Known about the structure:
Layout: E1 4-5, E2 18-21, E3 24-30, E4 38-45, E5 50-53, H1 60-71, E6 80-85, H2 90-103, E7 106-110, H3 114-120, H4 129-137, H5 141-151, E8 168-170, E9 173-178, E10 181-187, E11 196-200, E12 205-209, H6 230-242, E13 248-251, H7 260-283, H8 289-294, E14 297-298, E15 303-304, H9 310-329, E16 333-338, E17 341-346
Parallel strand pairs: 1-2, 5-6, 6-7, 7-8, 12-13
Antiparallel strand pairs: 2-3, 3-4, 4-5, 9-10, 10-11, 11-12, 14-15, 16-17
Pfam families: Lactamase_B
Keywords: Hydrolase
InterPro entries: Metallo-B-lactamas, RibonucZ/Hydroxyglut_hydro, Sec-metab_biosynth-thioest, WH-like_DNA-bd_sf
Amino acid sequence: MEPLPDGSNSNWAEPGIYEVAAGVYRIPLPLPNDALRAVNVYAVTDGSHLVLVDSGWALDEARRLLADALQGIGAELGDIREFLVTHVHRDHYTQAVALRREFGTKVALGKLEEPSLKASSEPERFPMHAQIGLLRQSGGDEVITALSRMFGESPRHTEAHLWEDPDEWLSSGRRVVLPGREFDVIHTPGHTNGHVVFLDDAAGLLFSGDHVLPHITPSIGFQPVPTKLPLSDYLDSLRLVREMPDQRMLPAHGPVTDSVHARIDELLEHHAQRLETMTAQVVSGASTAFQAATRMSWTRRERKLSEMDAFNQMLAVLETGAHLDVLASQGRLLVDEIDGVRHYKAT
Length: 347
């Protein structure tokens, strides 16, 4: 499998290996039964050393496709020196752990992912336990019922054995990646609390993980250990990256694009509009996050909440709650908790 120029295939998720820049290759790996379709893993090499940004989901097909792709640059799975992982979600982290067991590869992950990683490693823990609690606060019992039908009453974490600690907990700062090549590790909480992006300023590249994606808005705070105001964290993280010099954006899902600034501007505008829309829903009578979510449209297809599957209904209701909590923190809404459900009203 020979490397192709990146962008030579209109389908960004098509398996293969694509040259993004000198010594940097994009490798899409599959995400079965997931609307995202694929996750981009990036190989960074100087011809002698090999480091990967993110790893993919620990699936037999993903392992095979990664091995096939690396052959295109004369490398094997055992040649990977280290995985630099942007965040703790399974499509980014679990294959790194699986390959470490085979080859002793080092794994590095953001320090603030530690609580979520620990929670994920508990085999008896329902994977969406925290989200069920947040749905109850949102008045979303209907969604909880739908999730139970979709996943069963009490599914166990089938991948708990893959949530081992990394070899290194990453903090913000400059770090050697290859001899003569350094990345800046930048903490960007929001999508998860310990999410990091990697800046290769010498090459003009930003490995943006799920922090900035070209076609979709990342879910906010979808993690085993929730934080108080994940949307506020996310917006601050977007502004932090926007203040830095513009770079080519190497996202975890979707094609490489020329300007991370352009996409950040779109995301900030999107969330500003969402905040206004959700304020209007409360003013017009919606009391809970679930009620507000049912009155709104979702995705670029303008779908109603009832038209979505249970998992995406959950994401929509929790995103609504995250926006309403930011509005309450700004004093634009009032909030009271009654019998464990958060109720909002206009100031």
